[in-house]
């Protein structure tokens, strides 16, 4: 990528139908992990007008009232009335959950947990750079913060006409590889009928855009490139407007397109699934490499074979920003981090009911207490191993 360019990322709110599905799937996972730490969970969700379908494979000793859990999750998102477009109390809930295949289980389960095999084959990426305080790309960081601010303003009643569904898109200008300004903005939010478009646009600018975006960037952005509800009305939203599915926002969930993606979704999957756990570990490794100042940006790829504990590959790319050769960093990563499935789960303490909170506003770049993969506690060890301490 050239040093001078523009780059765009998008995010969606918790009320977007795909994110509703993700949150329901992770609510199911959390409820089961609270009772059964050895559970195997792969829960998929579909939402459409008046309907939620959950399906997948779950093997557990826990008992969870899944219908009640679905209704609670939908209601907490903000869909509590047909006036809003969806009602968690009256919607239909269909359950198509089965059990994990014994063919898969025999490859994953081991008498010695350290030899636990990967739950499937696959490749996963982790990424970090020094564009923001949380070592994430700036376009996705600001995209997340905009829709998170929309939710905050909606929930605290400052703009009572806001509704749960919203989308953001941020295009930034880069010079010498660093973000220097906003080239274009899009913020679309669902709303009630009793607000005019001009009122909405003014309020969104004051209460959502200005509190989140750097003031000088916003002021210097061409007004014709700031699009607030560009189609006009956005009264019909959520599952009425679009069908929602688990795992359909994998770029929103990760790095906004700035880094590559192995293709596996996260939500509804317990930590034995390397689609999720190894992607979290990849973020942890990459963030610590950047925090240790071994590189300004870092992408790591890991891959696995089903039933095999050791990764089939570990590859690091610092895009020419490394202070140490990439091959040497790979060696250091193997020494400092245990990237076997059991090693990842232990290292990041992943067998906890923490996943519903990951399912909106990004799995990465939010330094919440439960997000162990966002810690930079291995940075000193990396620097020492690289001879930079």
Strand content: 15-25%
Order of helices and strands: EHEEHEEEHEHEEHHEHEHHEEHHH
> Biggest sheet, strands in spatial order?
1-8-9-10
Strand elements, count:
13
Rounded mean pLDDT score: 95
Radius of gyration: 21 Å
Number of domains: 3
Task: Give the biggest beta sheet.
Answer: 4 strands, mixed
Estimated structural class: alpha+beta
Helical run tally? 12
Q: What name does CATH use for the topology of the largest domain?
A: GMP Synthetase, Chain A, domain 3
Structure overview:
The structure is a single chain. This protein has 389 residues and is an alpha+beta fold. It has helices at residues 17-35, 66-77, 102-108, 138-155, 197-212, 215-220, 238-241, 250-253, 274-291, 326-336, 341-348, 379-386; strands at 5-12, 40-48, 51-59, 80-81, 86-87, 92-98, 122-129, 162-175, 178-191, 226-228, 244-245, 297-304, 313-317. The strands form four sheets. The protein has a four-stranded mixed beta sheet. Helix 4 (138-155) crosses helix 5 (197-212). The chain is flat.
Question: Could you name the key traits of this structure?
Answer:
single chain; 389 residues; GMP Synthetase, Chain A, domain 3; 3 domains; four-stranded mixed β-sheet
């Amino acid at each position: 990528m050239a040093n001078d360019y523009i780059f765009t990322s998008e995010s969606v709110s918790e009320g977007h139908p795909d994110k509703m599905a993700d949150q329901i799937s992770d609510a199911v996972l959390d409820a089961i992990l609270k009772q059964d730490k050895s559970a195997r969970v792969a829960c998929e969700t579909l939402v459409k007008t008046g309907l939620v379908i959950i399906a997948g494979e779950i093997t557990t000793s826990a008992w969870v009232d899944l219908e009640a859990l679905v209704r609670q999750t939908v209601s907490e998102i903000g869909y509590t009335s047909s006036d809003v477009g969806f009602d968690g109390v009256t919607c239909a809930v269909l359950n198509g959950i089965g059990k994990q295949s014994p063919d898969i289980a025999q490859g994953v389960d081991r008498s010695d947990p350290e030899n636990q095999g990967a739950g499937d084959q696959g490749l996963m990426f982790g990424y970090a750079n020094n564009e923001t305080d949380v070592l994430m790309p700036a376009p996705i960081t600001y995209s997340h913060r905009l829709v998170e601010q929309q939710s905050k303003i909606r929930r605290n009643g400052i703009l009572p006409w806001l509704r749960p569904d919203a989308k953001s898109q941020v295009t930034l200008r880069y010079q010498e590889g660093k973000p220097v300004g906003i080239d274009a903005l899009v913020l679309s939010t669902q709303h009630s009928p009793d607000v005019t478009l001009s009122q909405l646009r003014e309020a969104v600018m004051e209460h959502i855009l200005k509190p989140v975006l750097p003031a000088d960037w916003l002021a210097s952005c061409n007004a014709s490139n700031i699009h607030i509800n560009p189609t006009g009305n956005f009264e019909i939203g959520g599952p009425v407007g679009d069908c929602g599915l688990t795992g359909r926002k994998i770029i929103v969930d990760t790095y906004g397109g700035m880094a590559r993606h192995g293709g596996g979704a996260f939500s509804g999957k317990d930590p034995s699934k390397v689609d999720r756990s190894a992607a979290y570990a990849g973020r942890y490794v990459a963030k610590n490499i950047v925090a240790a100042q071994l590189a300004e940006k870092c992408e790591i790829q890991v891959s696995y074979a089903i039933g095999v504990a050791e990764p089939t590959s570990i590859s690091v790319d610092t895009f020419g920003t490394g202070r140490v050769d990439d091959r040497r960093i790979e060696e250091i990563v193997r020494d400092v981090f245990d990237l076997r499935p059991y090693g990842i789960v232990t290292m990041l303490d992943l067998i906890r009911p923490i996943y519903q909170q990951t399912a909106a506003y990004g799995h990465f770049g939010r330094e919440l207490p439960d997000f162990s993969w966002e810690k930079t506690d291995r940075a000193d060890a990396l620097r020492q191993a690289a001879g930079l301490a």
